[in-house]
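#dry-run=false #mode=assembly
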Amino acid sequence: MTERSETRSAGDPADGRVRIRGWFESLRDRLCEAFEALERCYAGPDAAASKPGCFVRKAWQRPGGGGGVMAIMRGRVFEKVGVNVSTVWGEFSPEFARQIPGAEEDPRFWASGISLVAHPRSPRVPPAHMNTRHIRTTRAWFGGGADLNPIYPLEEDTRDFHDRLRRACDAFDPEWYPRFKKWADEYFFIPHRNEPRGVGGIFYDYLEEEFERGFAFTRAVGEAFLDIYPGLVARRMNDPWSDAERAHQLERRGRYVEFNLLYDRGTRFGLMTGGNPEAVLMSLPPLVAWP
Amino acid sequence: MTERSETRSAGDPADGRVRIRGWFESLRDRLCEAFEALERCYAGPDAAASKPGCFVRKAWQRPGGGGGVMAIMRGRVFEKVGVNVSTVWGEFSPEFARQIPGAEEDPRFWASGISLVAHPRSPRVPPAHMNTRHIRTTRAWFGGGADLNPIYPLEEDTRDFHDRLRRACDAFDPEWYPRFKKWADEYFFIPHRNEPRGVGGIFYDYLEEEFERGFAFTRAVGEAFLDIYPGLVARRMNDPWSDAERAHQLERRGRYVEFNLLYDRGTRFGLMTGGNPEAVLMSLPPLVAWP
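#status=ok
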């Protein structure tokens, strides 16, 4: 059985859990730096009258074990962007244990991950989501995904986003990108609207790779996102936009809310299991319309 | 077994289904008239520069049988208010039939109801919800409820709203108001926030009364709402409000969205069973913030 008590290895820097947790935190730092740099470089509407945003961090504790840090920025490029890193452990409730691989006979778990949702102010800059995680019960696996949710999809952006994710996947297994892209198309779909929530990306879960390989893939997905998304933001962030585009953006954000509250596993899982609602719901857009 | 084929009795005005459906439609007409009258009487902020709103109606068909009419107004007192009347019939899917009383052995059903959600523009005017319905499978029952969701709760409004609902209940059974009030307190609750969604009201379901008595109670709940809510709106609608109050209103509306998409039975039921998403989601507020 995998060792799952955080304290038993918290002091051993060679333990995989310590390393992956540290990596999530360093990725968070680099993502925050990249987004703050975009805030400083901004030269679009109202640039002269506004100041670059900065991330504010807030730590939270989970009563059953562990906790996390929310980093949130309300800026001029990013109306709201949140990057959560959390590392939690403890025991699943009996009801939940039945739904989690490897938790049926032993409800103890350890989980660490990063989750990012960006809602740009400009309707021309695509919102995006990325998250990767590592979970241990009596089994151990990796999961995650990244998808782009443009208000006005542009072929160039969609292509570059997908290309970069494909390169990350191809370095591990040529079958992963097609499989994880298809999974994203199925997962990031809004059944009651019969429409995709964006232009897709990748989604994967229960990836029971050997730790070093799984960890390397987790890093590759994070690096790919860090490599491609800030550039997509920079491409359009200085364009002016119209009131009609803004109104359309607020309406499209409603679809994002509908998906997250009605279908998103992580959101429902987090809220139903006593997660920190402030952290779980940091993904919701700052202003939304159902006109 | 109750007769459930709409066509068999559609021409018989004495059939309970024809009568209750007709009553829902007439209640809708009276509610719309009362709200349009408030729009005309409005004398608050921007009254001189704005025009009174009018309801727009839109019919929709349900592929499996029946349909409804959405009535929606985007006005100056009511930023968005919707009144839906729908009458639907057909067969529940096998999975759903198992969850519905009396549908286990025969999946056919008939259902008619009215549903109202009001989102006033002023943060000082309380949003409200009301719905009543009659459902027939091999069994037959009544359900419904009404609750008030003030941004800034005022004891006077809460007391008057509850008093009027209590009077409606007391005429039938002195135990109903305490029971249905408690049910509302439990139902209109947001577990992940550990807070009520408003100041309550009544909620009831699976009320298997004899038809005439159940129909009379359904009418009494509708009459009570029509009697009390427009008056509560009129009380505060001409008051000015501040930007801070408006910002707080948009944030509180987020709680309403969270409740409806995460927990509300009718919303989830409607969306998961192929209901008209436009009608089901008419309840969502026009503009919402998760700052």
